[in-house]
Amino acid sequence: MFNIFYSILLGLVQGVSEWLPISSKTQVLFASTLLFSLPVSAAYAFGLFMEIGSLGSAVSYFRKDILSLLHDRRLFNYLLIVTIFTGIVGLPLYYVTDKILQQNEYNVGIPMIILGVVLVGMGLYIRYSRLTERIGGLEQMKIKNYIIVGIAQGIAALPGVSRSGMTVSTMLLMGVKPDQAFRLSYLAYIPASLGAFGVSLILSSDQVNTAVQTVEPLGIAVAIVTAALVGVVVISYLLKFAKRSNVWIVDVFLGVIALVIGIVAAIVGPHVSGLFTFS
Q1: What does pLDDT average to over the chain?
Q2: Collapsing DSSP states into helix, strand and coil, what is residue 213?
Q3: What is the pLDDT of residues 169-226, one digit of tens each?
Q4: Which of 65, 54, 6, 103 is nearest to 278 (CA)?
Q5: 102 φ, ψ (degrees, to nearest 5)
Q6: How far apart are CA 167 and CA 178, in angstroms?
Q7: Whole-number Å distance between alpha carbons of 87 and 165
Q8: Which residues contact 213 (CB under 8 A, 6 or more apart)?
Q9: How far is Cα 26 from Cα 30, in angstroms, rounded to an integer?
Q10: What pTM did the predictor assign?
Q11: Angle at which helices 205-215 and 40-61 pack, to 10 degrees?
């Protein structure tokens, strides 16, 4: 039976978690299994629909950047190379790990904890070291930087690994300014999520049908719209925060969020079999 409150709540979870280093698919999985009693595989399929809402947020917020692709060759090359290497790394990981996880349980909180520790450690290192060299933004990045970002994004095909956490932290470590790291990460999300959505939808059609029947089309529509609207607000806030905050503060802030959510997931969350996250 359609429950608008549950649908809005799921949209809020997706709209916030997609842009933080806490693996949105995992958060949606926890919420949908709790609220709708969906089996794990169907809960993951529901998360695929939520990508549409976050795509709406990104396309709406970065519409000028998207239009600039017609004449901005540097940005076009960045997105093209990052997306290619995301596929090269992500698709084999998705396929191989899926076979392994079908027979083995996996605690999705562990990768979030590891990422949180890395982010906090990196922030403290930058704060107390002499590391001051920054490469700025896209204008100073080279092809090798694009490739590294693509590889980091591809690794996010693993269960519980946050796409935004991987890409943002990688660019911060390379010396990209915080606000540029967030912007470039969110732009790279658009083509990557389209690819992940398509591949996962093809491989999980039965689970998608189960989710649609359980949550109902109207419920899914409400959740997607909520995620899109909330996502625009979250993106705007995070970019402003990154612009006015020192890089080490951004690192520690993201790391603490990942640590807290990861610890909670490791203790009380389900051990997921056959789940993939690309957020």
Answers
A1: 81
A2: helix
A3: 889 888 888 889 999 999 999 998 888 777 767 766 777 778 778 888 888 889 999 9
A4: 54
A5: -65, -20
A6: 11
A7: 18
A8: none
A9: 6
A10: 0.81
A11: 80
CA distance 207 to 49: 12
Helix boundaries (H) for the chain: 4-17, 24-36, 40-61, 63-68, 73-101, 109-128, 143-155, 163-174, 178-203, 205-215, 217-244, 247-268
Phi-psi region of 269 (alpha: psi -120 to 50; beta: other; left: phi over 0): beta
In the beta sheet, which residues pair with residue 107? 271
Q: Are 150 and 82 in contact (CB under 8 A)?
A: yes
CA-nearest of 228, 273, 185, 277 to 50 is 228
Kindly report the three-state secondary structure assignment for every residue of 101-166.
HCCCCEECHHHHHHHHHHHHHHHHHHHHCCCCCCCECHHHCCHHHHHHHHHHHHHCCCCCCCHHHH
Distance CA 130, CA 126 (A): 7
Instruction: For residue 179, give the nearest of 265, 115, 241, 98 by alpha carbon.
Output: 241
> What's at 129, amino acid-wise?
S
The Cα–Cα gap between 255 and 240 comes to 18
Q: Distance between CA atoms of 64 and 47, rounded to whole angstroms?
A: 27
